[in-house]
Amino acid sequence: MQEDKDDLFAEEMSGVKPLPRHNQADVKKAKEDTPGQEARRKAAVRHKLLDLNFLSSDDHVEILKSNDLLEYKKDGVQHGVYKKLRLGQYQIEARLDLHRKTVEEARVEVFQFVRDCLRYDLRTVIILHGKGDRNQNQEAVIKSYVNRWLREFDEVLAFHSAQKQHGGSGAVYVLLRKSDREKQNNRERFGSR
Q: Which residues form the Smr domain (predicted)?
């Protein structure tokens, strides 16, 4: 059967000659990018490199109410340390105010704030996220995202809603991991290896 088809094809093609090389059309598309395409590609690569922010932005987040308390403690954080944080007994070394920020602005600011705090070896900081009282439904959108974002940092050991004098349920104390440099300083200061 296949042999018959091959013979039939050869019979039909008898007398057909290939086109000379110079008479063939070049159907390949030129691969040159326009200046606009090149600029957009570079901008996309640059944006991807600059945005190392791993905090979620478009995932579903459980929306909290204005008076809900934020509380979180990683395994290994001592009860006494967490209690002292919860009661606002640590000196606050830095603060971030997110009032009147969009979710995306807050995402960028929280990421940069925590990074800066880590760079300067700050341990206890506060983030003022607001309560969402101006909402009709009393939904605290920024607070809800802050609750999620802080959990995404390996360096955040614990956090808890602030005491009334520091903003109450509209703010959160954050305890950050000690840097290796600071751990070494403590070892030297207190004589342990």
A: 96-177
**Six token digits for residue 27:** 């159907």
What is the per-residue pLDDT across 106-128, written as a single tens digit (0 to 9) for each?
999 999 999 999 999 999 999 99
- Residue 174 makes CB contacts below 8 A (sequence gap 6+) with 114, 124, 125, 126, 127, 150, 156, 158, 159
DSSP state of 166: G
Other Cβ atoms closer than 10 A to 30: 6
Query: Hey, what amino acid is at 180?
Result: D
What's the CA angle centered on 171, arms 165 and 176, to 5 degrees?
A: 110
Q: Give the other-Cβ count within 10 Å of 142's Cβ.
A: 25
CB neighbour list of residue 113: distance below 8 Å, 6 or more residues apart: 94, 96, 125, 127
Q: Whole-prediction pTM value?
A: 0.68
Q: What tokens does 89 get?
A: 């007994």
Q: In whole angstroms, give the CA distance from residue 153 to residue 159.
A: 12
**Residues 37-65: pLDDT tens digits?**
777 776 666 555 455 667 766 667 888 98
Give dist(CA 174, CA 177) in Å, integer: 10
In whole angstroms, what is the distance from residue 161 CA to residue 174 CA?
9
Domains of the chain, each with CATH number or no CATH:
66-186 (3.30.1370.110)
